[in-house]
Amino acid sequence: MPIEITMPALSPTMEEGNLAKWLVKEGDKVAPGDVIAEIETDKATMEVEAVDEGTVAKLVVPAGTEGVKVNAVIAVLAAEGEDASAAAASAGSAAPKPEAKAEPAKQEAKAEPAAAPQPAAAPQSPAAQAPAPKPAPASSSEGRTFASPLARRIAKDAGIDIGAVSGSGPHGRVVKADVEAAIAGGAPKAAPATPQAAAPAPAAKAASDDAVLKLFEEGSYELVPHDNMRKTIARRLTEAKNTIPHFYLTVDIEIDALLALRKQLNDAAPVTKTEKGETPAYKLSVNDMVIKAYALALKAVPDANVSWTDAGMLKHAHADVGVAVSIPGGLITPIVRKADEKTVSVISNEMKDLAARAKSRKLKPEEYQGGTTSVSNLGMFGVKDFAAVINPPHATILAVGAGEERAVVKNGEIRIATVMSVTLSTDHRAVDGALGAELVAAFRRIVENPLSMLV
After folding, report:
1. Which in 274, 312, 385, 433 has the greatest CB count within 10 A?
2. Whether domain 110-115+132-225 has CATH 4.10.320.10
């Protein structure tokens, strides 16, 4: 009996993903534990392992396909002793039934992120342009049209009525090529939906995009479609700014004592001899010490270590600190769990590993989802100070600027000190101004007396 391989749910909130690459081809034999594919979520690329033994009879979903729903059949294996061609022939029947794939339009609109403006439809192949008869649009007894998520998204952006598009996919399902052909042929536009939210309709967004494009000379720019990461960042930051009442607190902190302690600890680091030479057990950065100090500050002011929900306030037992890491095309926030309980050297080595895997998009969802707060450090770029946007469900984020020599006044005398400006952004629903001030004061006290991090 053919063995179905389905799109896995790589996180509790995942609803769809992109099938980036197949690492096997039809006819290959696989065993449990073999890596067979790479799946892209909005911020990570995950490897998919086979759980059964068999021969790859059919790759149902081609590499590069976007918006593949969780539990959709992506490949079929022929079991031992089974004819691969017979298993491949059953791939169509092995695909998810339309009833299992279809969802009410309201749910789809809620689950799918806003799509990027679509460029002009690509020229159709001769086969797509040929006036061959197509099956009638597939629909259920409730009048719903069955279509792939990508087809729905393209139709939505173009203002096309998906119900008027004839499907050429399995069981008459509408696929991407059908929608593109309908756009080129001038398919009927979708009727305006009943207003439910403040978000602009696709037609309005398209008109806005056209207005922007008209400001620039044709040929003077390149329209680069947004990838899933950029769409997710845009959606979450828009949500954060629209729903979270941000409140900002900035303080200047002298870090000469912290820099001296950092140097002393690095100089005392145990050394291991390897083929590449002597390697220290750790090499602390200022950011590592900032993470530790901020985690201890949250433990000292537990009322600020919270998350807002409509049902009540979530008070966290530990300080799980997310750290913004820049990666190609966007950023991601890997989390140092229980940073309040870890030594600075452990935090340092953990961050190096998390940052390296973040840049290669190899983080697991549980390594960047959740957390109780965040740190964003732009000091290495020479930025003096800035205000960061809170990352829900966090109630705070600490923006760290560069340490620089400044003139400070102490006891009526001017002297030079290394000063770092930090800005705490708080969710004013959860952390009031006085509470935020107490938190940032605790952070300042720990940084200016860094030995307290070691006890």
Report:
1. 385
2. yes
For 353-390, the pLDDT digits (tens) are 999 999 888 888 889 989 999 999 999 999 999 999 99
Contacts (Cβ under 8 Å, ≥6 apart) of 419: 252, 253, 254, 255, 403, 404, 405, 406, 408
Q: What is the pLDDT of residue 304?
A: 97
Can you give the pLDDT at residue 118?
39
Catalytic option among 226, 246, 316, 428: 428
CB 394 within 8 A of CB 323: no
For residues 20 and 45, the answer to whether their CB atoms sit within 8 Å is yes
Q: Tell me the CATH class for 3-96.
A: mainly beta
Domain 245-454 has CATH 3.30.559.10: yes
User: In this predicted model, what pLDDT tens digit does every residue of 202-224 receive, in sequence order?
Assistant: 667 677 788 888 899 888 999 88
Cα–Cα dist 62/315, whole Å: 45
Strand order in the sheet with 45-49: 45-49, 35-40, 16-22, 65-69
Does the pTM surpass 0.90? The reply is no
428 is catalytic: yes
Q: Where are the domains of the chain?
A: 3-96, 110-115+132-225, 245-454
